[in-house]
Amino acid sequence: MRQHPETTPQQLDHIVKTRFKPWFKKKVEKDEIDGPRFMDLLEGPALKVMTFETCQVNGYKFSTSSASGSGVVVKGTLHENNLDYYGQLIEIVRLIYQGCNHVYLFKCIWFDSLGNGVRIDKNRVVTVDITSRLRSNEVFILASQASQVYYAPSVLDPRSKIYTEVKSKKSSD
Description:
This protein is of the alpha+beta class. The protein folds into two domains: 1-43, no CATH class; 46-167. It has helices at residues 9-29, 36-42; strands at 49-52, 54-57, 60-63, 71-78, 81-97, 101-110, 118-120, 126-129, 140-142, 146-153, 162-167. This is DUF4216 domain-containing protein.
């Protein structure tokens, strides 16, 4: 891939959204990319989707109905810096494609990782303001991208909306 340092992240996002699908479809049709499964995916998902209250993925049991199983974190980058995005799971969606293919998506409320909503202290303890919101239209992630976290109330001020992130153990089921 060619590097274009003058391209902004917004411009790059637009390029990917408008040019990737036609480019990828051409590659698959010319057999430059192997597999009929890719053609099924290029056709897009069925118009019907399924929603669930729980989902087991990456060794975690996520749930939309309990506060304990609804915390999510996604590893990300912003301008070549690592940046974790913290959120709360509100919906689990399964998109169904031709050929019995499917993908799970998590719809989340994202806390403001870019402003003061998420802080990391010198001991790497993460605190999250659960009233903060990330300004973004990107509410869905692939379920496979998610790790689970719990948000525990502050010990210093239990009535505060600042919660401490506690990493979840993977379930054995």
